[in-house]
Amino acid sequence: MSLVRVAPLLMLGAFLVVNPGVAQAQNPTTNADNPECLGVSCGRPQEEGGGGGCGCGGSVWVNYTDDGDTLAYTDDADGDGRADDRDNCPFASNRDQTDGDSDGVGNVCDNCSALSNSTQRDADGDGKGDDCDEDQDNDTILNGQDNCPLIPNRDQSDLDADGAGDVCDSDDDNDGVADGADNCPRVRNPEQVMPTDGSQCRVDADGDNISDNGDNCPGLSNSDQSDKDQDGMGDACDVDVDDDGILNDADNCRDVKNREQTDDDRDGLGDACDRLYCLVVDPTQPLKCLDPKAPFTVSAGGTAKLANAGDGLRPPLFANRNGAAMEYRWTVSKRPEGSNAVVENPQGAVTLSRDWQYTYVDGSVPHFVPDSEGTYELTVEARLAFADRVFPDQRVSTSTLVLTVGKGDGDGPNCSSVPAGFSLTALGAALLGVLMRRRRREP
């Protein structure tokens, strides 16, 4: 047997000597009350990696069983440690899941947090739900006085004085014939007999050269008469152009039906109409996105805030490659005058990722505690363990996290390291796997 084949085994043996806990991890005496469970944490899920409350992306959960540690992944778009299907605000970090009005929508994303409104309807897209919005169409006319509360009409014109404004009245002249079929929609003629003065039947109230009786937006100029969803209401006055149930102002694909509103790269443009996939890590810096088709690139998360010195931060690590073995090193490249804070566990190796975010192994989780208020810059340098297939010459990438620390600046959860679960032994096993892969690829 060659030295190349023996080396990994020797390394593993040495590792077991250094970490005797491996042999003791399944000692039956540690949990005598449960003969089927050989570990101290059997059946207790414990959060590992992922967002951990940072708003940084997908989480990883570990379920401890009698067969050892079982990894299970869960989608967690906001990185608050709550799986999306059990999160009352799947796209807004809220670890405590507070829901003051008990409508199933958490306070941080509820557009009427003090009033139960599970539908979250918002006709004018102003962020205030219809159930608690005193001006639902945002036309400056309060709902109680507005003759078209869901369609803006500041002039409040109402030809037939029936209480319904012309822009939302399907029969402006109240003659029993709907405007679209009425040969004279602004003159009452239930028998559809043309009046002597025919000019009244060719009314063009909005001045778009389309007579009102054939205008799909009679109160709003739209000479092209575009009607993408062909519902009879022109796009210019249709609050839901693509007819997917999502109002235009809240729709991430305004012209393409996509009720699910999925946006995998988080750029604000729905997958159904997004032609370019480029992961936005920091919403305040959308142009600094991670393109999987570009050379190897890492991201430190862009920007972060902490309310006070002494609060902890676990700097996130993203890359435009999933599941790539890499080594990393964090350094404090800028700090306030007088600060001596450093990154604990600044270097290590990772291979496990979920949605482009890498999971640190417990025992080497980077952790930073600022010792004074001000602006810090934490820079990470990452190096691929193996050459990239498409861009073999690009193996190193750096990125900087700008951290602002100051009273009142912390507007999000405290991004501290998550509870321990992976042991130093697991770290060694991961590094051993990297070594074995490297050996196999070397000539």
TrEMBL record:
The answer to whether keyword Signal applies is yes
Biological process GO terms, please? cell adhesion
Q: Where is this region: Disordered?
A: 73-103, 119-241
GO MF annotation, one: calcium ion binding
Polar residues compositional bias: what residue ranges?
210-224
Composition bias of kind Basic and acidic residues appears in 79-88, 121-130
One Pfam entry for this protein is: TSP_3
The biased composition feature labelled Acidic residues covers 158-176
User: What superkingdom heads the lineage?
Assistant: Bacteria
Q: Where is the signal peptide?
A: 1-25
Sorted keywords for this record are:
Calcium, Signal
SUPFAM superfamilies attached to this UniProt entry = TSP type-3 repeat (SSF103647)
According to UniProt, the name of this protein is: Thrombospondin type 3 repeat-containing protein
Q: Which species is the source of this protein?
A: Myxococcus stipitatus (strain DSM 14675 / JCM 12634 / Mx s8)
